[in-house]
Specification:
alpha/beta, Rossmann fold, seven-stranded parallel sheet
Length: 253
């Protein structure tokens, strides 16, 4: 059943973003999906059309570039700017290292993607929501926002920033009826660790050995639940982990 509503999901080429796109498509939403890999966005667009008859707009851009973000979103037809749900999912971790040995290029990539990218997209979309006094922003954080772990320094800092920005958004957007939710997942078996360890499959796989981690679909279900609540109900902050994981530091294996 088509709802007529629109969800914009960043980082939709894999993991949480792709799973969220499928979940919202299943619920009858029209979708704007963004990412850096055109071929993956095209494949997702076709998959959603075939499976759910979803009308999907695929936009290729890098959230790290303010110019690309603004150009891609502003050029959309006005009908597509009536966004009901924004899922700020684009993000990544790169490597594990002590602060004195960290790769500053990795730091820049994490800060530019996880923090500035989220801000650039939000800054563009929020005025459209304000004009309608309606909307819901879901920011994907991490348990790393709540518990700092060894060698996680800058990544943890970026997710702490997402936590703080989400709280600030909630306050600033209160007069406009716009909901803001931060969803903080724990260990989930996606491309996350493969990206963090720069393609080292053995090292990435070892992260999830000995326990059952979350799946991308689990997180998508949580995001959908938050977005599907009645207009007067808003979940502000939500931490979700595998049963075997208490926080970013403690996991029973």
């Amino acid at each position: 059943m088509k709802t007529g509503k629109i969800a914009l999901i960043t980082g939709a080429t894999a993991g949480f973003g792709e799973a969220c796109a499928e979940r919202f498509a299943r619920e009858g939403y029209r979708l704007i999906v963004t990412g850096r890999r055109t071929e993956r966005l095209t494949a997702l667009q076709e998959k959603l059309r075939t499976a759910y008859g979803t009308e999907t707009l695929a936009l290729t851009f890098d959230v790290r570039s303010k110019a690309e973000v603004v150009a891609a979103l502003e050029q959309m037809p006005d009908a597509w700017k009536q966004i009901d749900v924004l899922v700020n999912n684009a993000g990544l971790a790169l490597d594990l290292s002590t602060i004195d040995e960290g790769d500053t290029d990795d730091w820049d990539t994490m800060i530019d993607t996880n923090v500035k990218g989220l801000l650039y997209v939000s800054r563009t979309v929020i005025p459209w929501m304000k004009a309608r006094n309606s909307g819901h922003i879901v920011n994907i954080g991490s348990t790393a926002a709540k518990t700092v772990y060894a060698k996680g320094n800058v990544y943890c800092a970026t997710k702490s920033a997402v936590d703080a920005i989400s709280q600030g958004m909630r306050i600033d957007l209160l007069p406009y009826g716009i909901k803001v939710t931060a969803v903080h997942p724990g260990a989930a078996e996606t491309e996350f660790s493969l990206v963090r360890f720069k393609g080292d499959e053995d090292r990435a796989k070892d992260v999830y050995t000995g326990f059952q981690p979350l799946k991308a679909e689990d997180v998508a279900d949580v995001v959908w639940y938050c977005a599907s609540l009645p207009p007067h109900v808003c979940i502000n902050d939500l931490v979700v982990t595998a049963t075997a994981q208490a926080n970013a530091y403690y996991t029973f294996k």
